[in-house]
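Colleagues,

Please find the record for the three-part complex below.
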Amino acid sequence: MEFHVSIFFIIEVIGTVAFASSGAMVAIKQQLDLLGVVVLGVTTAVGGGMLRDIILGNVPPGLFMNPVYVMAAFITVLALFIVVRLNQRILESRYIASYEKMMNIFDAVGLAAFTVTGIDTAVLAGYGDYHFLSVFLGVLTGVGGGVLRDIMAGQTPYILRKHVYASASIAGALCYVFLADWITGDASMIISALLVILIRMLATRYCWNLPTATKKQP
Amino acid sequence: MEFHVSIFFIIEVIGTVAFASSGAMVAIKQQLDLLGVVVLGVTTAVGGGMLRDIILGNVPPGLFMNPVYVMAAFITVLALFIVVRLNQRILESRYIASYEKMMNIFDAVGLAAFTVTGIDTAVLAGYGDYHFLSVFLGVLTGVGGGVLRDIMAGQTPYILRKHVYASASIAGALCYVFLADWITGDASMIISALLVILIRMLATRYCWNLPTATKKQP
Amino acid sequence: MEFHVSIFFIIEVIGTVAFASSGAMVAIKQQLDLLGVVVLGVTTAVGGGMLRDIILGNVPPGLFMNPVYVMAAFITVLALFIVVRLNQRILESRYIASYEKMMNIFDAVGLAAFTVTGIDTAVLAGYGDYHFLSVFLGVLTGVGGGVLRDIMAGQTPYILRKHVYASASIAGALCYVFLADWITGDASMIISALLVILIRMLATRYCWNLPTATKKQP
């Protein structure tokens, strides 16, 4: 993977930590063993980029060529596992709410960073004129790891079910593709990433949901 | 994707509409939100071709290079969503039976078209002599989208469970590969597609099922 | 696929038979039909190698170019289906325990063979210096088919849930990668494969399990 500005590396690491944490928490709640927690955590963090690279023909995918994100995810997952193992009541403690609130912000940062770098990867591979492909790959990089996590955990993917999550990624991706014709790549990247974060924060704060075709039964 | 005869384009669009509709109905019945309905509908319609292209090394897959089928699927899904949203009792009305009967025929047409164009793609890529690969890719193009739909919806894939569905695709694919040595490509394509439709119609009419190893418990 | 020593071909066929058998038994217990049993059995046997080849860019995957393992898996599955169909009480008989004990040994042999040949494929493709990639592809070749089987059967993947299974593959893969710098390829291949088998046998005998983060509730 390439980065226009090195601040994006830091932002991507923050996103990797948040995604790995979300995968590990799903695995811990399902009482999977250490390996299950590692696999689910790391897959959530780097699975989206792997799917993007396979579709783009970047094989072997970048995560294998430069495993820095895999290492970041692995360390996150291991730390979480050890903390929960040493103090099992922590999952019911009042700290968990603050932790999840912080992780939700980190997760929005990660979704934003992965969405724009996903598009960037498509553009650098020479597919900048294929707007549908670029947008799809941005969103896939953002949400693909979570989809793999949910499929492996036997759950209907979170993004299909509720909250404005993939929608935030789609909005940011469309914004990036349209802005790129008018302003510099770096500026449009940053504006689009901020848009993703803004939508996610507002959606969480005001409990936004997309409509369903039929009324929900309780 | 390439087409020998342009009538196949019309037939593929019919199949795309039917497949998108089947994915959208699964999502609507599971009360997924608008995005979930779109993702499941479009994945069902174009997912088989995407898997085929990845296995064949046609990357990025054709659906991204020429998103006409994605658009057809998207419009279908959106129309369905709006109709159900505006008139929720339609799902229990007597129209639904006629609608599902028509969609079942469309679905058979789609299965037939996708099976033969899947093989065609393999042949055009230079793998015509690899009969197992050709047959597999034909069947994958036909049933792969439905398998992705069921995995994402958290169900055991439909094709593994009942009805002569994948079997019809397999029969058509084998027919196409064998006939191709004896008659012209177009003729064997049409005969094989008709065979798929015929088997599906007979299987639905006479409730054909493949045997299971043990007796079904009720 | 390439083999350093032809004994590995025999060992791989043993593994293919065991993996196909495990997939077919899952399908038979879920009362899937003949096609479901074939798909699940064959996918379990060759799915790991297919995923490895896609990630490595070996497309179309080797299993399609030389379908000898697919044939071995198909014959195994068909034989099992016929035996269970003809004598349904066999699933509750005392023979089934001996059969499953034997298949457990075969499965360990398969896991060992697939792990080392998976690494070998990565090395032959020129990625020998990418240790993380090599180890990942070895383990993926070993356990990927089982993961696909479980996802298609709607179960949380076995390797995430219990028993020292993927861990044995990881230990063997790490051993192979480290030994390869010191002794000949063939010797390190055999030692690593034996390590996988040894760990699996000990784990089964002494009911080894990896730790979970929280205490299991019964």
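Chain A has a mean pLDDT of 89.

Comments are welcome before we finalize the supplementary table.
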